[in-house]
């Protein structure tokens, strides 16, 4: 089954992180300019590094084609890498900002 092994968990991770913010944590992270600047900085480093690691001409990291969709952009980067990257960075920032929100609420 194409895409199940890596794609499904990548998509689920995004849904879980976004749902946690919108339904439970409510830190307002997605409304902060600093968050989107952070994501742009992450992408500025992720694209060249991940592009080099996953380039089809000489990959350092090889994905089993039966475990991801095969959508690659830019520089042969699997779409799933961006989804997991979004989830990991956002979850980390939520973990840092959630206690701050609770302190202000008290």
TrEMBL record:
<keyword id="KW-0413">Isomerase</keyword>
<feature type="transmembrane region" description="Helical">
    <location>
        <begin position="82"/>
        <end position="99"/>
    </location>
</feature>
<dbReference type="GO" id="GO:0045436">
    <property type="term" value="F:lycopene beta cyclase activity"/>
</dbReference>
<comment type="pathway">
    <text>Carotenoid biosynthesis.</text>
</comment>
<keyword id="KW-0125">Carotenoid biosynthesis</keyword>
<dbReference type="GO" id="GO:0016117">
    <property type="term" value="P:carotenoid biosynthetic process"/>
</dbReference>
<keyword id="KW-1133">Transmembrane helix</keyword>
<keyword id="KW-0472">Membrane</keyword>
<dbReference type="Pfam" id="PF18916">
    <property type="entry name" value="Lycopene_cyc"/>
</dbReference>
<dbReference type="GO" id="GO:0016020">
    <property type="term" value="C:membrane"/>
</dbReference>
<dbReference type="InterPro" id="IPR017825">
    <property type="entry name" value="Lycopene_cyclase_dom"/>
</dbReference>
<protein>
    <submittedName>
        <fullName>Lycopene cyclase domain protein</fullName>
    </submittedName>
</protein>
<feature type="transmembrane region" description="Helical">
    <location>
        <begin position="34"/>
        <end position="53"/>
    </location>
</feature>
<keyword id="KW-0812">Transmembrane</keyword>
<feature type="transmembrane region" description="Helical">
    <location>
        <begin position="6"/>
        <end position="25"/>
    </location>
</feature>
<dbReference type="GO" id="GO:0016872">
    <property type="term" value="F:intramolecular lyase activity"/>
</dbReference>
<feature type="domain" description="Lycopene cyclase">
    <location>
        <begin position="11"/>
        <end position="94"/>
    </location>
</feature>
């Amino acid at each position: 089954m194409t895409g199940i092994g890596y794609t499904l968990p990548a998509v689920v991770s995004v849904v879980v992180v976004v749902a946690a913010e919108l339904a439970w944590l409510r830190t307002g992270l997605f409304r902060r300019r600093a968050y989107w600047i952070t994501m742009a900085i992450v992408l500025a480093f992720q694209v060249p590094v991940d592009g080099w690691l996953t380039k089809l001409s000489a990959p350092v990291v090889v994905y089993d084609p039966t475990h991801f969709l095969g959508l690659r952009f830019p520089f042969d980067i699997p779409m799933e890498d961006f989804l997991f990257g979004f989830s990991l960075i956002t979850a980390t920032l939520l973990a840092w900002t959630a206690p701050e929100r609770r302190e202000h609420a008290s």
